[in-house]
Amino acid sequence: MNFSQNNLKNQSSPYLLQHANNPIHWQTWDENSLREAQQQNKLLIISIGYTACHWCHVMEKEVFEKQEVAHLMNEHFISIKVDREEHPDVDQIYMLALQIMTRQGGWPLNIVALPNGKPIWGATYLPEKQWLGSLHQLKDLYQKDPDQMEEYALQLEKGILSTQLIDEPKDKEFKRYHLQNAMNKWQQNFDYKNGRDKGAPKFMMPNQLQFLLRYGFQENNKEVLNYVKLTLYKIAQGGIHDVVGGGFSRYSVDEKWHIPHFEKMLYDNAQLISLYAQAYQVFKDEYFKEIATKTIAFIESDLKSDDDLYFASYDADSQNKKGEQEEGAFYTWTKKELQNLLKEDFLLFSDIFNINDTGYWENGKYVFIQTQNLQKIAQNYHLEEFQLKEKIDSCLLTLKKERNNRPQPLLDHKCLTSWNALTISSFIDTYKITANEEYLSSALTTARALWDNLFDEKLYKNYVEGNRQIIGTLEDYALVIKAFLQLYQITFEDSWLKKSQKLIDIAFAEFYDEKENLFYLASKSNEQLFAHLFEVHDNVIPSSNAIMCNNLFMIGKITNQEKYIEIAKNMLHKYKNSFHETPSNYSEWMNTYLNISHPFYHLSFGKECIENKKFFLEEYLPNAILTPHVPVNLKQYDFRESDISNQMLLCQENSCKRPSNKNIEILKQIDFN
Q: Crossing angle for the helix pair 544-559 and 587-597, nearest 10 degrees?
């Protein structure tokens, strides 16, 4: 390989291809690049970002396209570009290093490391002058006193590894006070006016809200439930929600959910679909069902590939009328544009979506936000509510047709395994609340496409135009297993259970550390990282270890394999004392904790009453699994399995209720608290 040139042009990642024409001799993250740095004894520059990252684009334009910068980097460093969505393991370890060094994080993530990959310096976005100054200092110091740098790298490595250490609780019981203490602390930070946590920026964090929904439901905690409902309304009515084309942006820069960073990510939208579907099950609010189905329509129309998988994201930036890249150009409107398009409906639309000081953003542009009750607006305009909704739909359709003539934001056309697994789950959750077979069909089609294209004795991470290149991480295994276990409970097809079991076996072989009773994010055989880390804290996607913990509990219950339930309990035991420290970091762990601290059921269906399953799918049953087989050896009961072929059997632990073929009778036997 020629390291005296930019080697990104043959990559499949759109993010890497964006940098393929930089004058910098960018290399890919692989053994060859790391070996070259050691052979030449040059410092590494590891620059990590993703396609939809606004500040990544800014730094490329202002820094990486400059000849002076390229000359310095090419002469004295080996420079590696990394797509964080392809290499979350690389992103994880260097982001942790940055946070330890600077107490901040974000992207672009720029690390300078020793030739062996151990970090010594880091920063996010820097303008050209600061970037050049920092690199000159680091180059000179490495030439004059490499021992000092190596000592610093060693201390930083110890700091990184120390984050993995935890004092295990002495008590082995799973008491409810661990959750209660966590909730008491977490609620102190609730924003009861705008939803989610206090302050800005605001991230939606669907996994946290899913836990809070379940906790509020099972504990019958009206305060928490009302808070979740408020949050879901505020998100859906804010500028972060694209009411014209569907879908949600990544986060809001303000506390009111008004002005988003406009990139749209598949993982956010898939998780939000599941969240709104589950919220519908709890609240029976038709608005939540509408949000779920409209967001699915966006995914289907804008992100679906010809391979029946789903693309990763849309960029925040697109061309404005001057032909310049501008954040939000595709999504924002001037008042004049709206007046010309909506004509006599403009005043009504303006009242609904605040084409006024409330909805104003900058440079004459508006971002839609709803702050008034539609029923009240309907009364003011002497309309029935259904008539008002018809007018809204008509206006939005007019705007969508006009907007489709604008230059589209850049599409990141890679299909990521873990994000497609989340999408499968979103189809399943929407099928539950609609009984629309098309959603189940989409879930099955996506799952088969994922298995056919991204599994070959192991999971691959990405799929781009028929090519798969990168080995999957624990996140991929955890989320695919979760989706397949959900599919099994919907279809009762053994193939999905067998696939889940196969993936669990591989995950233990590739990622499991028996001593720590946790799974590494990267395969134990991966020698490119200077250290192997566990992913424990939730982020915009839940912790892969927490998801695996829940998977093991679920498959243990479904297949009567107590060993998996014990491993799940041991994993949970490690972190239960940490819940109250930073509760929002442990929402997925706490979700699994509810399985143990509260009643959990196995509902099995006899052969002749399989159709009864649909009734229970519509219900919110977070503390139950559904299977076509009984959970325990029936010899301890007074009936044989053939006796319940036309009935349902509800069991908890090793105790079963009286069989019944009446749905309501079974439902009443389920205790949530």
A: 30
| CATH number for the domain formed by residue range(s) 14-162 | 3.40.30.10
Closest CA to 246 of 302, 327, 188, 177: 302
Nearest Cα neighbor of 179 from 589, 601, 672, 600 is 589
Which is nearest to 406 in space by CA: 305, 304, 323? 323
Q: What CA–CA distance (Å, rounded) separates 568 from 548? A: 8
pTM equals 0.95
Domain 177-317+412-598 has CATH 3.20.20.10: no
> Rounded to an integer, what distance in angstroms lies between the CA atom of residue 91 and that of residue 81?
11
The low-confidence residues of the chain, meaning pLDDT below 70, are: 631-643
CA distance 606 to 179: 36
- Give the pLDDT of residue 643: 65
In the prediction, which pLDDT does 317 show? 92
CA atoms within 13 A on the CB side of 448: 8
At 76 the pLDDT is 97
Query: Of the candidates 595, 470, 587, which has an alpha carbon nearest to the alpha carbon of residue 207?
Result: 587
Please report, as a single letter, which amino acid is at residue 141: L
Using an 8 Å Cβ cutoff, are 239 and 252 in contact? yes
The per-residue pLDDT for 632 is 58
**Domain boundaries, given as residue ranges, for the chain:** 14-162, 177-317+412-598, 331-405, 602-668
For residue 571, is it left (φ>0), alpha (ψ between -120 and 50) or beta? alpha
